[in-house]
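Sequence and structure are no longer studied apart. As an example, we show below a sequence and the tokens encoding its fold:
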Amino acid sequence: MSEHCSSAPSADSVLFGETRTGEKVFLHTARNGSLTLRCIDYGAAVTSLEVPDRDGVCENVVLSYDRLAGYEEDTCWCGLLCGPVAGRIAGASFSLEGRRCELEANDGTSCLHSGPEGFSYSIWHGETFSSPGEAGVRFRFSTLPGQWGFPGTLDVTATYTLTGNSLILAWEAETAVPTLLAPAFHGYFNLGGENTASIADHRLAIDADRFMPLDEQHLPCMPRSVDGTPFDFRAPRSPEHAQWASDRQIQLGNGYDHPFLLNSPENGRTPDIVLEHPASGRLMEVFTDQPACVLYTGGSLNSSQRFSGDRGGAPGLALALETQWYPNTPALPDLPQPVLFPGEVFRAKTEWRFIAAK
């Protein structure tokens, strides 16, 4: 429900439900200034992010499900953390230090978002925290040896923090043996709130001169220039793709489902991505230290899905901006590989900064 946001930083947890196998899942709420975040232990999913419009009225700007069953039945990674490796891995396998690692194919012959379970459909352990300046939720998860086909074990922490007018997701991880690690947050944004049925009236800018085209198996290939293509978002425009319907890349992605190589990640001074909803005045700036962002306009969303606000799914209902490592790198050896070695600490951070235009 729309309401004026509270200002006091706070955090609390309540039982959200039990999985089909009897595991308890808690709902964690963090409030700070004008923002309210809700997330659950299942997949460390963000179930609500309430953001004010130009009149100070707060609405949920992410797709979510009202009940735990929605997440257990999910087919579109709605608000979930993806990993250990986000995106597609060709042939559902990779080689690392002379060892062949077989993953589970769940997208044709490819492994998508680390298979049918991965980080997304696992139970994390969440703990809330708050202070005079911030509030948030810290999730922890440890993999079993060789779980989902990835070598060794991982100890992972994903921390959501509300500070000022920003939501920050910070990752940390360590491993016992060399492995691949390239996680991402798969939230779907519609800045118009739950009464807005499309992102066509949004404006999107991505600071990227190159994107990764898809092959006929929907696998990202080596980068090419955005010049003269539907993938030039260097100036703000609608992410609606209808005008590009005859473009083969748009057909392959059923809209946009493509990685963009960001020009200056880790800059920190200017946003890598800007999404705006002029009608409400909500504007979201995205800052990341990751080299790529997958723009996905929800081509697989469909009417069988029921999201919060009793919304049925539909292509273009919301869009995902998946900040991450270069996808499909095991099949693209000319790109840097996301290998984590023992003794190293993996760190990654993305900030979503919200502004209410007057």
The mean pLDDT is 96. The helical segments are 68-72, 248-253. DSSP finds two helices and 30 strands in the chain. The longest strand covers residues 346-356.
